Structure formats: C-alpha cells, structure tokens
Give the backbone structure.
Amino acid sequence: QVQLVESGGGLVQAGGSLRLSCAYSGTTFEFNIRGWYRQSPGKQRELVAIISNIDSTFYADSVKGRFTISRDNAQNTIYLQMNNLKPEDTAVYYCNGWRGSPAENYWGQGTQVTVSS
C-alpha cells in the first residue's frame, strides 16, 4: 500500500522558517513528479512546488525565492524548506506523488503550517 507521510508543520512567526518532509513508502515504481500543495480555508488546493525524477523543479510565483524543494532518493523522501514565511503561507500542506503510466495520483494526509504576524 502506497503511503505518503508528511511531517514538520507547526506554528512560526512571520519571517521564520520551517522544513517539511514527506516520506514515501509501499511503492514498487518511481513517481514521475513529486511535490507540495497547500490549501487554506475557503480556498482551492494550490500547487506550491514540484520536483521531477530528473530533478527539474517548478515553484508557484508566490513562493519563488523563499521555498526550496529537494529530494533524497536513498530515503525516498522529499523536503520543502520554507524561509521568510508570511501569514499568507498559512495552510494545510499536502505531499503529492504522480505516476505517469498508468496515471495515478497519491496524497498524504496533510500537515498544518501556521504563520503568525
């Protein structure tokens, strides 16, 4: 059974930093793309950052220059380093894994990030 387990969320003051981790397990295949999404109350889930299996990355404009996505293949884990956090970054952050063939999408349970002003 495929599992994605996030950790590292919490409460931080504006300007602070957090590092999220997502551990993938139960797979017999490699994800094509892995990444982070977030959802605030009353808003749709939005892409934050993704990384491909050849280390191409993409960031939402709102986090460029502040967030960095990375992966550790040995640990089958991805990370999201979040610096200079802003109150508008407050959301539940979800880890994602996308497999291209067959097309399958997997999600973690989410971790809360709260940034106080």
